[in-house]
């Protein structure tokens, strides 16, 4: 269900990058999700899109 969400019409899949320094410091594998690579350079794109997509017709008119 998540992978077929409407938000994927406007978002692109972004990679997970290894954070080497943090991984070494905490002796664990730390991965960073690169939402900053979205076309609008925003990690908030998904939330904003979902909010707008779920507005009623009346709310969209405002």
Automatic annotation (TrEMBL):
The keyword Lyase is annotated on this UniProt entry: yes
Keyword Nucleus carried by entry: no
GO BP annotations listed: isoleucine biosynthetic process; L-serine catabolic process; L-threonine catabolic process
SUPFAM superfamilies for this protein: Tryptophan synthase beta subunit-like PLP-dependent enzymes
Gene3D superfamilies assigned: 3.40.50.1100
Highest taxon in the source lineage: Eukaryota
Molecular function terms from GO: L-serine ammonia-lyase activity; pyridoxal phosphate binding; threonine deaminase activity
Cofactor(s) this protein cannot do without: pyridoxal 5'-phosphate
InterPro entries: Ser/Thr_Dehydratase (IPR050147), Ser/Thr_deHydtase_PyrdxlP-BS (IPR000634), TrpB-like_PALP (IPR001926), TrpB-like_PALP_sf (IPR036052)
Name of a matching Pfam family: PALP
Domain Tryptophan synthase beta chain-like PALP, residue spans: 12-59
Keywords: Lyase, Pyridoxal phosphate
The family this protein is said to belong to: Belongs to the serine/threonine dehydratase family.
Protein name, entry field: Tryptophan synthase beta chain-like PALP domain-containing protein
Organism of derivation: Sphaeroforma arctica JP610
